Amino acid sequence: MTAFSLDNRRALVTGANTGIGQAIAISLAAQGARVTCAGRRDCDETIAMIREAGGEAEGLILDFADPMAAQGVFDGAGYSILVNNAGIIRREDSLHFTETDWDAVMDVNLKALFFTTQAFARAALAAETLPAAVVNIASLLSFQGGIRVPSYTASKHGVAGLTKILANEWAAKGINVNAIAPGYIATNNTEALRNDPDRNQAILERIPAGRWGDPSDIGGTAAFLASPAAQYVHGAVINVDGGWLAR
Questions:
Q1: What is the pLDDT of residues 76-88, one digit of tens each?
Q2: Domains and CATH numbers, the chain
Q3: Which residue in 79, 152, 184, 232 is the catalytic one?
Q4: pLDDT tens digit string along 93-114?
Q5: Is 152 assigned a catalytic role?
Q6: pTM of the predicted structure, to 2 decimals
Q7: Residue-wise burial string across 166-200, b where 16 or more C-beta atoms lie within 10 A, e elsewhere
């Protein structure tokens, strides 16, 4: 077994039906993990891709419109990896942003993330499925302000903060907690930007790597953070952005 192997590990990835979450699930399975692909919609495509490659996967419906949706999921199930990828966004000028949109984003992106991670850690410690690893999906807006996305920005700043406090509390208990801050990744969510010639050019000119990221770029980083190779990495928020923040 190599330092990057996830053999005999069980992982749950939220928002695994498409894009970054799908790529993470595939990457974990490729390193040997048995992956539960969770989403508010079915993850049949992701599961099929993993199984076709010889991996193990199953699906789970979790809708984090209820932030406590994952309570009981981990008890006695043998999970030692959790990837918190599920998230939503609402766009509107801050002058007109509604309480409804604020609460919807904060519930999914921050409250659900915390209580899902709490449930995972409690189960891992009780069952001694250690070492265990949590990988949170943060954002470039964990560091920047953005425009017209006040609740999303606040939630992703919160994800970075929770990553650090949970690392502080759990590192000595055998649970690694880290986060990834993706840059501009070619997914369904960014298709409109990529199809706008002016916006696409402006974005590419800012990225030192000269290209949009591929979801697999995030998947590989997540697999590393979940592996024994990252056993001394705690509380990190790793930018996977082609150099965007370095510009």
A1: 999 999 999 999 9
A2: 10-238 (3.40.50.720)
A3: 152
A4: 999 999 999 999 999 999 999 9
A5: yes
A6: 0.97
A7: bbeebeeebbbbbbbbbbbbbbeebeeeeeeeeeb
